[in-house]
Amino acid sequence: MSAQQDTGVAAQPVPRAGLALLVIAVAQLMIVLDGTIVTVALPSIQNGLHLAGSDLNWILTVYALTFGGLLLAGGRAADLFGRRLMFRLGLIVFTAASLLGGVATTGAVLIGARALQGLSAAIIAPTALSLLAATFPAGPQRTRALGVYGAMGALGSVVGLLVGGALTEYLNWRWILFVNIPIALVPLAGSAVFGPDTNRRSGVELPGPVTATLGFGALVLAVNKANQDGWTAPVVLVSAGVAVVLLTAFTLLQRFGTNPMVPPAVLADRGRAGANVVMLLMGAGMLATFYFLTLYMQVVKEYSPMLTGVAYLPFAAGMGVGAGAIGPSLMAKTSVRTVSVIGMLLAAAGMGCFTLLSPSQNAFAVLLPAQLVAGAGLGMVIVAITIAGVRDVEARDTGVASGLINTSQQIGGAVGLAVLASVATKVTEDRTAGNSLPEALTSGYTSGLLVGGGLYLVGALVALLAFSRSTDHQS
């Protein structure tokens, strides 16, 4: 099947398609950007709010958890109550949450605001993709629009690091939250370009998103606490047990519930199921990469927030080229399988290059080529997987299908960061004896990056097996 065929949505083209794409692209850029914009500012936030070091991770992970854990509910809400209505509601809540975080005087308020941002992002992301599919006809038009959408997702993470560094250094960390307010007003004002909501469905299921979000949250808590207290600590065992119970309950609800968040037909196709597994693995490595590289640059190399942000420009360039040029070009000539496998292999190669980092060397000699290669590969994968994840879905299920793709990336990021940080911490502890602290830290960071590269190799294998010849462009 062609990669340019129907993604499952009967498009109703609007007269101002260019404006519609701009509205969707800005919204997508904003919510992805906020997943990483706080990363470079973490030391400043810690000092400003007097946070314990162990609490810093939650500023990142709570956004990914609520974003990922509630995305399925957000996608279903778009199907139930209307895409345009939910899109607007999500933008309003996101704006309010950004204001609350910007004026926060305690870590608890900031973390709560980040959770609220994640909840609203879980509404915006799937509705934006649903609006795109409902606006652009299947074929070259939709493929080009999906390329722009994918590019915004690819660039958003890196742009967040750049903007976060600049705002933190030249203003203060609070502006990494305040900046969302004018950005959100753009798609909110432009949402009138979309037509009236159609294809609404009845029925809603609440236990599913609640058990999924709390279950993954308990899992991340278990891994984080294990870093501090060991795997046999009571809090770790209890959290892990709660995670198993809740995630098992979520699985049973989806299997036997009368109104599951994920209709069985959505994942019945092997290609769509494979797309979500690949996105899960990619998300696990990607967020951890930004986390480790930021710590390496600021803690080991003592770069300023602004220089740290600038150091990510090669990643931005690579992802922009991969998602905006190489990926769509290869999709037109080859297949989802080919683009995904090549992209994951390139990303893994870039991760392997990161292991050459050391405390004393010129870091840019490694960071520049490694980021270009890894960024290009990830950009290619995002475009291919975005298309594969919503291909041939029934129009009534497009919201939940697009939500599932984003869920996989965000949950992968939250859980992957916790697991890879645990690997890095263990290696650092083992290398502390007989090595300087910068050497021990760098060993930990590069070990985490190496494991992340292994996840990308697994993703390449999954893509090779899941995307059969029947899903190839040329077939």
Question: Can you put this structure into words, describing what you see?
Answer:
The chain is an all-alpha fold. Helix content is 78%, strand content 0%. The protein has helices at 17-33, 42-49, 53-81, 83-102, 107-135, 140-170, 175-178, 180-190, 207-229, 234-256, 264-268, 270-300, 305-310, 313-333, 336-354, 364-390, 398-432, 437-466. Helix 1 (17-33) runs antiparallel to helix 5, helix 14 runs antiparallel to helix 15 (336-354) and helix 15 runs antiparallel to helix 18 (437-466). The longest helix has 35 residues, at 398-432. The model is unreliable at 1-11 and 470-475 (pLDDT under 50).
How do the helices and strands line up, and which of them pair or pack?
Layout: H1 17-33, H2 42-49, H3 53-81, H4 83-102, H5 107-135, H6 140-170, H7 175-178, H8 180-190, H9 207-229, H10 234-256, H11 264-268, H12 270-300, H13 305-310, H14 313-333, H15 336-354, H16 364-390, H17 398-432, H18 437-466
Helix pairs in contact: 1-5, 1-6, 1-8, 3-4, 3-5, 3-9, 3-17, 4-5, 4-8, 5-6, 5-17, 6-14, 6-16, 9-10, 9-17, 12-16, 12-17, 12-18, 14-15, 14-16, 15-16, 15-18, 16-17, 17-18
The quaternary organization reads as: single chain
Strand elements, count? 0
Strand content: under 5%
* C-alpha end-to-end distance: 6 Å
**SSE string, helices as H and strands as E:** HHHHHHHHHHHHHHHHHH
Q: Outline, from the CA principal axes? A: globular
User: Which class of secondary structure composition applies to the elements?
Assistant: mainly alpha
What is the residue-averaged pLDDT? 82
Poorly predicted runs are: 1-11, 470-475
What's the total helix number? 18
Residues in helices, as a percent range: over 70%
Main beta sheet, described?
none
Rg, Cα atoms, Å: 21 Å
